[in-house]
Amino acid sequence: MTQPATIRRAPGGPLLTTALELAARMVPVLPLRAGKIPFGNCPSCRYNACGGRPNMKTPGPCHCPRPCHAWAAATTDTTTLTGPAWAAAWKQTAAVAYHPGGTGLTVVDLDHADAITWARETLPATRTVPTTRGEHWIYRGTMQSANAVRDGVDIKSTMVYARWLGPGTGTMTDLPDAVRTLVAREPSMARPAPHSVTVPAPARGGECPHRTPAYLDRGIAMAEQRITETTSAVHATVYRTFLAVLSAHGRCGCLTDAQIGRLFAAAQAKGESPRHCTDAWTNALNRLGL
C-alpha cells in the first residue's frame, strides 16, 4: 500500500482528511467509534430492510443515512464520506479503518512479541505497520479472514476491517501459502472458543420491541450482573455475554454507546483490559455477521 498523497485538509477534522487520502488511493475506508467499534446499523437497514448484506457477504445495494454494516460500510466514494448523512459520525469518530480485502490485501495481525518472533521465523518479510501491542504484516492478495489462528495471530482480509495506523515500512510481497494454511488449522485456545448461539429471527413490521426502554434496560442490567457475579472464566463469560447481548439487540441499531460502555465497564471491573473487551466485542460481531 503506497503512502496516500496529501490533499486539502477536510473540514471534518484530521481523521476525515486521512479517510479521504486513502479513498483517493482506492482504499475503502470507514469511521470507528471509541473502542474500535463500527457504527451500528441505521434505522433504514434494520432486519436487512435495505435488501442487501445478509450475513454481511455483499456491500449493497443500500442508501444508508449513516455508516453502518461494519466492514461493508467501507467506501472510496468521497461524496459519501463528506456528505451530510455522515457528518455526525465523523464528529464521534475515534479512528479510521479500512477493508483490506476490498483493496486486495491481507493483514496478519500480530498481537504480542512472541507472535512477531514467530512471524519473523516463519513468514516472508513484507510491509509492516506498528500497532499498540504488536505489528500488522501486510501482504498482497486476499483470503478468508479468521481470528486466533494461533496464539496472538489474527488474519484480516475479506469481510473484516483493520485500523489504519499508517503506511508502514518495507516492500509489500505476495500472500504466502504459509498464511493461507493457517486458516485451515484448528484455532488457538488462547481465546475462548465461541459458544453456539441461536439468533432469533427478527419480527417483521411494526416498531422495534427493543425501543421499549424497560426491555432494553433490563437486558443490559442482566448482562452487567452476569459479568459482575462471575467468579471464574472471566474471559469466556465476557465473550458469551457480549454474544448474547448482540444476538438479541445487535441487528436493529438499538444499542447506544452508553449501554455498550456499561458492559465494557463491568468487564473491566473484573480485570479485563480495554483491549480484551474490544476483542471480545469484535469477535461476537463477527460471529453473528454484524
Describe what this molecule looks like in 3D.
The structure is a single chain. The protein has 290 residues and is an alpha+beta fold. It folds into 3 domains: 14-97, no CATH class; 101-184, no CATH class; 209-288, Transferase, Pyrimidine Nucleoside Phosphorylase, Chain A, domain 3, CATH 1.20.970. Helices cover 34% and strands 14% of the residues. It contains 9 helices and 10 strands. Strands 4, 5, 6, 7, 8 and 10 form a 6-stranded mixed β-sheet that branches. β1 (29-33) and β2 (37-38) form a beta hairpin. The longest helix is centred in the C-terminal third of the chain and has 17 residues, at 213-229. The radius of gyration is 19 Å and the shape is globular.
Task: Chart the SSEs and their pairings.
Layout: H1 14-24, E1 29-33, E2 37-38, H2 78-82, H3 84-92, E3 95-98, E4 105-110, H4 113-122, E5 127-130, E6 135-140, E7 146-150, E8 153-156, E9 162-163, E10 173-174, H5 177-180, H6 213-229, H7 234-249, H8 257-269, H9 274-288
Parallel strand pairs: 6-10
Antiparallel strand pairs: 1-2, 1-3, 3-9, 4-6, 4-8, 5-6, 7-8
Helix pairs in contact: 6-7, 6-8, 7-9
The gist of it:
By secondary structure, the protein is an alpha+beta fold. It is built from nine helices and ten strands.
Low-confidence stretches: 2-9, 52-60, 185-206
Strand percentage, roughly? Answer: 5-15%
The average pLDDT value, as a whole number, equals 78
* Shape annotation: globular
Helicity level: 25-40%
Q: Rg, please?
A: 19 Å
Strand count = 10
Number of domains: 3
Order of helices and strands: HEEHHEEHEEEEEEHHHHH
Structural class designation: alpha+beta
Distance, first to last CA: 27 Å
Question: Main sheet, how many strands, which sense, barrel?
Answer: 6 strands, mixed
Number of DSSP helical runs: 9
